[in-house]
Amino acid sequence: MFREGHAPFPCAIGGLVGCFGLRMRNEQGGMSTRRCVAGLAVVLVLSSQARRATAQAGETAAQQVEVTAARPGPHDEKTLAQLLSAREAFERHHALAPAAILAFRLYPRLHPQDLPGMRLYLVDGNRRREVSLDDQQRFALDPTWTRADADRGVLLQTSLPDGAVAWKVDVRTPGIAADRRRLGDLRLECEADTFHGNLQRGLRTPMSAVLDASDELCLLDDAQVWFAERPIFGVTLVSGARRRTLPYDYLHGSTGTMALAGLFDWPYALRDRAYFLPLDDRSWPDDTEVVFDAMDDPQPGATP
Amino acid sequence: MSAPRVAALVVVLAAVCAGGCSSVGNGRIAQLDDAHAQALLVPGRTTRDDARQALGDGAVIRFQSGMETWRYQYREGIAKGWDDVPYVNLVVARIDPLTRELVLLFDASGVLRRWSLQAYRARHDAAAPP
Predict the structure, then answer these.
(1) Is the pTM value of this prediction over 0.80?
(2) A299 and chain B: CB distance < 8 Å anywhere?
């Protein structure tokens, strides 16, 4: 629910909210448009009569009316408590990426065209203010956001409907080229997210809770999905002279059934950028480079 | 080891071997090497129909962009389905069979853009020469 106080034209707004409420129910419960129009007409007649009565009585005092209405559907949001928990896990596992900086990133999960209209707000009770996003839709935790705010229920809310946004912890060591990531950064993202920030969608099974309690969850190769900057056709781990091009099993959610895929972040707009990593193989050092082969890169060895 | 246990192990191994190799496609990638792949798969020219005719149907993933990947796999020795059978999967992991994998990338008009061919074992980093 949101509140709007000190409405200058309370009767007109009351009519609009009345119709809006009917439309909401029409979408959700089958209320007809005809009823909505009829309802609006009744409200307009009543408001006209009320204005006439007020004029006749010669009342000039200003009115203050508080209008309450349902939001037009829930927005995609996370609690500040989740983000602070992610930061605590980031600090606990910071040795994986000692020079890295923590941020959070938003991706349009369902439709790429949602990107231009995506906004983020800090919502504290009835107040909200916009949180600025950089050109990669990232934001950092404001130092003034406290655990006390989180305990009060402060939210980070997007302008898009629930389900339209994928939220990711974003850990970056400065100086890494744009076409690659550092494995330790990605391991740290997993630690900060899974069962701490709890930002990615997925199934939280009792077994994964047990593994998390023993700090072993991010040693499973399907614990976390990541998204490259562009659609990818291959991922290669490089550590000095050692290289491993990952099998296609690690790309695009290509293994297993799609029956429950809708519960996760990757099956829609982000699928062509999605990859997993062999987190179970601890022999790769944190400084390993994760190098992407983009779909629109040329075929290796092809003559132009 | 007791006689019944030996018998049980023999049955399991026999079942594993009876599973044979597993493949997606018509199995031709078992013999496909880089040179043959370069002759067969020409980005900008090869079409989905060409690929289907030469290699059979791959496992397809379609993206919102209209691009799609076709994956072909061939694994020597043991059918992939056994990976999900308790205890048998331990035997499979021990054997670590060679898998050959060909992935094709088609654009929205059905023309090949990229391909990759590799052979790998699950427990080894370096890919074997395809």
Answers:
(1) no
(2) yes
